[in-house]
Amino acid sequence: MEKTVNQKAWFLVLPVLLLVAFSAVIPLMTVVNYSVQDSFGNNQFFWWGIGWFEELLHSDRMWSALWRQLAFSAIILAIEVPLGVFVALNMPKKGFWASFCLVLMSLPLLIPWNVVGTIWQIFGRVDIGLLGYTLAALGIDYNYTQDAVDAWITVIVMDVWHWTSLVALLGYAGLQSIPDAYYQAAKIDQASRWKVFRYIELPKMMGVLMIAILLRFMDSFMIYTEPFVVTGGGPGNATTFLSIDLVKMALGQFDLGPAAAFSLMYFLVILLISWVFYTVMTNLEKREG
């Protein structure tokens, strides 16, 4: 007897597909259209083919921004993932303090990105900021507006403060799914703290950590508001990441063709690296299992 397949459920999905087409596909096609054209001004365009893509691939400006972006994302992941796991492991499991810690860890995530940038911009100022004034009083020459290293440290610490909570909360959710029987068995076997983490806690956290790493990579690779508010991409081009460089090209210089090509290449890089991350981590999870 053949099983009857009801295709009417597609009508329930159709509004979502139309909404996605309107909000994502149509703007993307507009960007693709601009990326293969040039303009004389007065809204007059002519075919330019892949000229903008070739120009960008030979542009030192784009490659410099890309390396800065990759370095920033690598540093962020290297700090936030271990730190988030450490915080999750040391959070209370039950009771009032568990709820208190969850609320406390959620607070940085509730602050809008532009407000985070404004907070750290003021916080790091030597004249009125607590951090800048304290470091100056200690004799430390700190000025994120003039020194590239200070600017990088400020942006990194700001991002760690803002987003480590996300990794910690996801890791904590993974830990909560571990039955108490696992810990009791480990205690009977006199397993060390490291072995409990290695063979019980880490495997249970791998799924949520994979999500955390992907989210943090994509967010850090697309970061714009916080460093733009704090440093404006400076000093010089020290913190001019890909997103800031793209906005300068599109709005500051109004080069729509190169900016459209730049945004497509930007999108493909994020898609490619995210796919690599996902593939590697999925294979590792299967091997551990």
Automatic annotation (TrEMBL):
Top-rank lineage group of the source organism: Bacteria
Annotated protein name in UniProt: Carbohydrate ABC transporter membrane protein 1, CUT1 family
Species annotation: Poseidonocella pacifica
Topology of this chain in the membrane: Multi-pass membrane protein
GO BP terms, alphabetized: transmembrane transport
InterPro entries, per database record: MetI-like, MetI-like_sf, Sugar_ABC_transporter
Keywords annotated in UniProt: Membrane, Transmembrane, Transmembrane helix, Transport
One annotated Gene Ontology cellular component of this protein: plasma membrane
Family membership: Belongs to the binding-protein-dependent transport system permease family.
Pfam families registered for this protein in UniProt: BPD_transp_1
Major subcellular location class: membrane
Transmembrane segments: 12-36, 70-89, 95-116, 151-175, 196-218, 259-280
This protein's record includes keyword Transmembrane helix: yes
Subcellular location: Cell membrane
